[in-house]
Structures are given as structure tokens and as C-alpha cells.
Amino acid sequence: MFKFLKGVVGGSGTGLKDLPYNIGDPYPSAWGSWSHFRGTSKDDGSPVSIFSLSGSNPQDGHLAAGRNGVKRLRTVRHPNILSFLHSTEVEALDGSTTKFTIYIVTEPVMPLSEKIRELGLEGTQRDEYYAWGLHQIAKAVSFLNNDCKLVHGNVCLASVVVTQTLDWKLHAFDVLSEYDGGNESASGPMLQYEWLVGSQYKPMELAKSDWVAIRKSPPWAIDSWGLGCLIYEIFSGMKLGKTEELRNIASIPKSLLPDYQRLLSSMPSRRLNTSKLIENSEYFQNKLVDTIHFMEILSLKDSVEKDTFFRKLPNLAEQLPRQIVLKKLLPLLASSLEFGSAAAPALTALLKMGSWLSAEEFTLKVLPTIVKLFASNDRAIRVALLQHIDQYGESLSAQVVDEQVYPHVATGFADTSAFLRELTLKSMLVLASKLSQRTMSGSLLKYLSKLQVDEEPAIRTNTTILLGNIASYLNEGTRKRVLINAFTVRALRDTFAPARGAGVMALCATSSYYDITEIATRILPNVVVLTIDPDSDVRSKSFQAVDQFLQIVKQYNEKSNAGDAAGTTSVGISSMPGNASLLGWAMSSLTLKGKPSDQAPVAGANSVTPATTTTSTPSSGLIEIPSTAPVHRVSSSTDFADQPTPPSPTSTDGWGEIENGIHEEEDNEKDGWDDIEPLEEPKPSPALANIQAAQKRPVSQPVSQPKPQAAKSLRPKSTVKVAQDEDDDLWGSIAAAPPKTASKPLNVKTAGAADDDDPWAAIAAPPPTTKAKPLSAGRGRGAKPAAPKLGAQRINRTSSSGM
């Protein structure tokens, strides 16, 4: 037969010329005189099954029965009946004789006997799979007998095939005929092609061709007998040889034995209807059948039933036959998630089942569903995807992440739920390596810039940690613009102690990206301040960072002294190997509860501090911190008042600070760091230089001096103003007068003002160089009333008396 097929194949064995399918290798067995081949579609290469039947005479009985089978298979549709795709009849010359061949193309299947041998199931798993298969065939037979009033006539092992999803399907419809039991005038054979049925499969009345008795019997009588034959063959593991072998019940499960005996009753009228078999049999009540049945009618279940089922499914899947789970349950689960009938917990089960697949199968069967789920508006689905991203993130291609996944994930950065913002942030650790530089600079860094001033301290901390971990994926120009500003200007001055600690750790982890000038002028000055931080963990990390960066500076100095100037422009060394695992997340969850005292302040007169401070956990990089809001307390006097720090990161939207010589500027077209020029150090104004010089000299005794108006351009907005009498102001004598370009100095004298012999005049700031009319002349802009403070009121009174 196979040789004949090769003869009618056109060309080089690619298939019949008028058949849009390629014929492949044959299976070793098939029903009756049919041959069963593997095949593929010529259009898209999808797999199919091809059945062929040949004869030398077009009126041959086998061919006539084959044509009946084609007609029946084309018209009868049921989930448990083989799906018909195409058929054709070909006439071809085989030597001197003419051969007629019928071809049927169906969905890809293989003979049940071959699949059972391939699966090799044993014990309980074998019984559960057989129960599921018999349940499907019983439904198909019941559909034919009870709904269509048709008689299959030859239900047996050979007439059952198995799909790629391990479903059992009934075929071999050559003998199939209408049941005409209600026609009293009928006298001929009810089954026109009953001679094709093997004698071992025929019940007594059919073997005797007693058509009168057959017509008096119920429609299911013949096929119930055939179903009993099928049960015997699958459990005995051998093909039925003769009818007497059906009495051997040693291999039949005890729970199925009563139904088996009723199916094979010698009296046709007493044989069990297959519909009753499905409803009543104890044998079909098992975990596999119940699970698949629930999945198939999932859309009819309510949300509570779905949620309960999917939460149990991961553990249940481990107890079911692995091949059935992967080939049957997994596609059902993926389809239900994709079309919205499954709940969010189903994703956990999908990923667990997917973990049992090979990498190639996972990419083909699971990833397409996951990528589609990212477009879901269901927040529970989005949370589940982000929580499990480490299980599938590495399998996603860079193009899929950049074009299909990231645009949907990025919406979580601005979500109103802090928990979802944090999950979105953490997912970037997996996805960042697959993003293009355009996406990183044009989108991701903008979101991170906003998250570093998020209202949740936990998110601010983790944003700093993420920047440290993805620094290696940024190009050099972006690193120069972003890292130092993000870590020093914001992280090191955060009011949340773990955020400051994260900034120090991030600087250490990315030390190889900074040149010696940046280390000496921008990093070390900012880190040294934290060596006196109120939080012990921050202090410990700061000392380590100082040691590390000083070592880098020393190495540069040694190379310079040795005359080795090559490669000294970037001499940073990282104290930690690699970047991907440098920093662990600082938070385990935003939902953890904690005390506000867990947040320590930055040392400084203008810092926002909690009521109390606690000792943080050791600097392992992975600590649990609650996301409670900081307790604000204005400190009017601290030990570090002479080193005021800029305001909290939550007070600015840019990456720059006033101390760096950059004024805040809102620019939505930039990524948040573009307003910083990291390589240029602004020179202090002359007035500020005088203040710094004055602060370095000791003050032996307090001397009353008139208190000049504070210059807004020299101090952060949040600097604490102490309402105090000028005579008691110990710092008034060395304070610098702010230059007002359009005004004359105040020409007033106050009580206790110093005369020309003032001993502090030598270190006081020089008077403004601009010339303007005295205030007594009445036209200077300096005559603008000051804020209603104590000193200002005294000046106003004196000025009015002087005029």
C-alpha cells in the first residue's frame, strides 16, 4: 500500500498533485483496510492525519463503504468524534491496472494502541486516564445512539484515535447507518456493511443476522456491546481474538465491573445505555475527570468557584499524570486565561505547569499567552504577572519586551496603588537588560526620576537600588548625567535612613563608572557627611564607602607620582563583583507594618526627623522596612547646624539641587537628569566665600552686630529661621550681608550696633560694590518693608525716625 502511495505521489514524494497536503510516514496500524499516515499542510505546514483506502474496482464493496464513511464523517460533528478537514478520490495507474484511492484528511491523531504504549502509564494514573478516555468515547457513542439515532456498528480499540491533547476520538464510520427500529416494514439488513465487522466484535443477534431482533432492540444495543469490547481491550492490553475472551474479567477494575457486565448482557434490551454509564458509574468519579470537566465548562462557573479551583490547581496538578497535565490541562488553562474566563490565581498554575516544559516548549505554549495578558486591564492579573516575572522574564526576547511588554508594564509606574508601583519597579530588574537605549533614556529613566521622590519611602529606596543594579545597561553619557545626581543629590539626603543607606551602597556598587574628579569633588564630600548620621547602619556603610573611594584616590595618586598617567581618567574599582546582584531589595512588602521611628533623619539644621530613631538591621542589602510616612519635626538646634542639608527629595521633581549650582526647572521633555552638568563645579559667590572663611576662624566671645537680611539665594528654602533678639545672636557678627544690586546699604543705627573699631570687621563680608542712594534719600529699592520679624521691626522704626 505504501509503495502504491509513493507511485501516485507527484514529484519527489511531496504529496498528490491535487491534494493540498503532504503525505508522510505511516502508522503501523489502522482500522479495517484503511492506512493511516502522518501529514502536513502545504500552506502552513500544520500537522494533519491522512487516511487512505484503495481498490481496483470503483464498485468494490470496501470503496463503497469507504465513501459512506467519508460522507458520515463530514456530516457528523461532535467534540469526541474525529474532525474532518478534506477528502478526495484519486484514480491512478499501477502498472497495467488502474487503482482507485480515497483520501480523508483529519486533525492530527494517532491510533489509541500506539498512544497507550507511548505513554506507559501505570497504576492509579493509568486508571484515571483510561477513565477520562472511556468517558469521552461513551459521550460520542451516546450522541450517535440517543441524539442522532445512528448505529456505529464497530466500536473497538482500532476505531479510537488520540489527538495531540490526549483526547480520545471515535472514527471508522464505514459501517455507520441509521437506526430504523420504528419501521415495521423494513426487512433487509439495517447495517449495509456489517460484513466489515470482525466476528469477535459482533453481539449474538448481529452474528446471526437477526434483523428482527435488532430492530426490536434499543438503538444503543450494538454499540454498548462494542464499548464493552473496547473496555476489555484497553485493560487487557491485547486485541480481542474471540468473543469468549470477554468473560475474562481479571483485568477489569472492580468499580467498573458491574457496568462492564451490563454492557455485555446477552439480552439486547437489558444492555446499559451509554448515557447512563456516564451519569452513574463510580469509576468516572476521579480527580482527572473532575478537573478536566471543570475546565471545559469554566465559563459557567461563578467567581467563587473559579477562585477556589485555581488556588487548588497547582497542588492538584502534581498528582495527575504529567503528560496529560502538559498536553491537555495546560492548553485549556492558557486558553481560559487568554479569553478572560480564568481568574488571576490561574496564572500561578500556568507557570507551575510551564516549569515542567522544556525551554522551547515553554516559549511556544506559555509565553504567547503571558505576553497577551500584559494588555489586560484587570489589576489582579497585572499584579500576578509582576509577582512571577522572575519565572518567565528571562525567556522573553528583547524585541517582545521592548515593543509589547514594557509599554503595558510602564503604566504601573504611575498607578495609584503603591503596591503595584513597587512591583512594577522591581520587575525592571528583570526587564531592563532587554530594553533598548531609546526606551531606557526616553521612558524608563523618566519614571525612575519620579519614583525617587515618591511619597512611599520604600519605593524611593528601591528606586535607588534599581538604579545601582541597572547602571551597567546605561550608556556612558547617561551614566555620567544620572548616577551621581540620583545617588548624592537625592538618595544621600533622603529623610528615610534605609534610602540613605541604599544611596551609599549604590555609589560603592557603581564606583567603576566615576572618574577621579567626580570622586574627589562630588562623591566623597557627600558621603563623609553621613559618617555622623543618626542611623548606625548608614554610618557603617558610609565609613566603608569612604574607605573604598579614598583607596581609589590613593591609587590615582600613586600612579600620578609614578608618572603613569595612562588610564587615570577613570580609575574606579568596584568592591563588589558584578552588577546584577549587587544590591538586594530593601523592602519585602509595602504592606508590612512598622513604627515611624524606623526612619532616621539626615544630620542638619533643616532636616526633617522622626520623633525617635532606632538601630537598623545589618547592612546585608536585604532588609525589611515598613513604608510608613516619616514623622516631621523641625529641629531648631542640632550638633551639625553649621552644615545644613538641602530639603527632602520629595520637595523637588528634578534630579538637581541648589547646592550644585542648578536651579530647579520643570522639563517634561527630559528624563529628569538633563539639568545637571556633573563635570563642572560652580564657584561660590564672593559673599559665600567670605562666610566660609569666617566660619573657619574661632569666635572667642559673642559680640552684638546688626543682623542683616538673609539671602534667599544662598540658603535652602527649608532652612530654619530662629526668632531671636539680635543682641543674643552669637552668629550675627560673622554673617554675610546679602548683596542687593539695586539698593544702598541701610543707613540706620540700631541699639548695640558696632562702631568703626569693631574687632570683627576684619572677617565680615565686604560691603556691596554697587552705588545707590542712601535710604534716607527715599528712593532706593532697599526701602521695601521686610518680613514682620523682631529685627526688621526695629529697623523700620529707626528708619522712620531717621527720616
From TrEMBL:
InterPro entries for the chain: ARM-like, ARM-type_fold, CIK-Related_Protein, HEAT_type_2, Kinase-like_dom_sf, Prot_kinase_dom
Native species: Herrania umbratica
GO molecular function: ATP binding; protein kinase activity
Superkingdom of origin: Eukaryota
Domain (Protein kinase) ranges: 2-284
Name of the protein: Probable inactive serine/threonine-protein kinase scy1 isoform X1
First and last residues of every HEAT repeat: 366-404, 523-561
Compositionally biased tracts (Acidic residues): 664-679
